[in-house]
Amino acid sequence: MGEIKLSESLREYLSRMPDLDLDLLLEAYRKPLPTSFRVNTLKMDEHEILEMLKEKGVSFKEIPWARYGYVVEHGSIDLGKTLEHMLGLIYIQAPISMLPVEVLDPKPGEKVLDLCAAPGSKSTQIAQLLNGLGVLVANDISFERVKALASNLQRFGVLNVIITLMDGRKFPRFARECFDKVLVDAPCSSLGIVSKNWGIARSWSPEIAKRLSKVQRQLIVAGFDCLKPGGELVYATCTLTVEENEMVVQHLLERRESAVLKEIDLPSLRYRSGIVEWNGIELGKELRKTVRIMPYDNWAEGFYIARILKEGSS
Amino acid sequence: MKLLSPRERKFLENRLKSLYGVEDCFDDLVLIKCGRGRIRATTKETLELASRLRGIQQIGLYVMKISNGDISLSVEGSQLLDDEIKNNIIELDEEQVEKWMKAIPIKTEIAYRGRYVIGKFNRLYLGSARVSRGGLLYPQIPKWRRIPIAKTRNNMHSQLP
């Protein structure tokens, strides 16, 4: 196995992070992510699909934190080339990546906005939980990525969806207080999924995190403004930096009085609370309610998740 | 994108009935024309919200294409109609379904009515194939969702442009 290289600035940054074990992190980066998938109950009964996979020699176990989620234990076939995948009976998605939508918990009948939706893993998951009732708006800024998003939503068989191509920061101009739930799965420096691409760790710099943080701050405020009073927003990234996570949420809490952090309860999953002090700056204590998942916590991806309520009644 | 007029919808229902024996189709859904004979289906609520948004690329699900009165159902279109489809169905075996999803032509001895036939494997509908005069079925599986064909010495030359 080759040796993973971190940029000097990343090594220095990570060494300053509280509650982070750099050796374990490097070990997690070296390991490939587990193969996991969701079963599409919009198209077929869950057990029937699982039987089809078993007949192909795939063995799997339930992912405790995600409805319809399974992780492959044994099986030599490439799931991405199976009939079940091509027909949209399963959706291949990494296990922790299923978590933000579980925290958002969309209910049938709700209007849900996925502000940075491509390639559509979380959008299809939202659509599945809406179960054909309510509306999903799946937006992305990139034309190329919207094409992948559209293909995935088609394959998944989603009827109640609107796909939009636009800068998510402009969404409140015409969709203010329009949605019951909003997911902001923001573009990030991806330090939680380095095992997919070691190049991320080699090329990381604080400037990248700073630049992304600016966009993320604008996106979270835009997403929040699209929420109806009483609605909920989930902010998520697959990175570890405080600038892209806690400081983004802190920015929203300072800008919008009606934004209130809610507790996240994740049984059967290892995680830690959000960071409340960084570089000598005190962040809000309520940021402890947000969740950090290190890649070595569950030997899967690293993620950050915050759940925010918009106070008031619609 | 434009809604299907009541006249166009009636025409479509009649064609689905005569080609595939479909009695009830998309009753509670809105049908939208989206160019070159393509039809998408969605819910009324989705359409209402869409009237408020900008930058819309697509609404709902692509279900079929109409050309010269013939109807080619997409995979999802056929799955939505499900057991409403009574005629022009080919039951595929495991070997044929593999070919179908690779868009490889399938030989058939049966004469079908119309230019298209619907594929079915166990309980799953798999969209349409075009019927050729020579008795070959050409599955209409879009490139992006075909099972890739493994390259062997025998088929390498056919992969070339």
Can you walk me through this structure?
The complex is a heterodimer of chains A (314) and B (161). By secondary structure, chain A is of the alpha/beta class. Helix content of chain A is 33%, strand content 23%. Chain A contains twelve helices and 15 strands. Chain A has helices spanning 8-16, 22-30, 46-55, 83-86, 99-104, 121-130, 143-156, 172-175, 199-203, 206-225, 246-255, 295-298; strands spanning 36-39, 59-62, 69-74, 90-92, 111-114, 135-140, 161-165, 179-185, 227-237, 259-262, 272-273, 277-278, 281-282, 291-293, 303-310. In chain A, helix 10 runs parallel beside helix 11. The longest helix of chain A is centred in the last third of the chain and has 20 residues, at 206-225. Chain A is globular. Chain B contains five helices and eleven strands; from the N terminus they run βαββαβββαβαββββα. In chain B, the strands form two sheets. Chain B has a five-stranded antiparallel sheet. A five-stranded mixed sheet of chain B has the order 7-9-10-11-8. In chain B, a hairpin with a 2-residue loop joins strand 5 and strand 6 (70-73). Mean pLDDT of chain B is 90; it is low at 156-161. The A-B interface holds A 43-44, 48, 81-83, 86-88, 111, 132, 134-135, 137, 139, 146, 150-151, 154-155, 157-166, 173-175, 178 and B 29, 41-43, 45-46, 49-50, 52-62, 74-76, 79-80, 97-98, 101, 121, 123-124, 126, 144-148. Strand 7 (161-165) of chain A pairs antiparallel with strand 4 (56-59) of chain B, so a sheet runs across the interface.
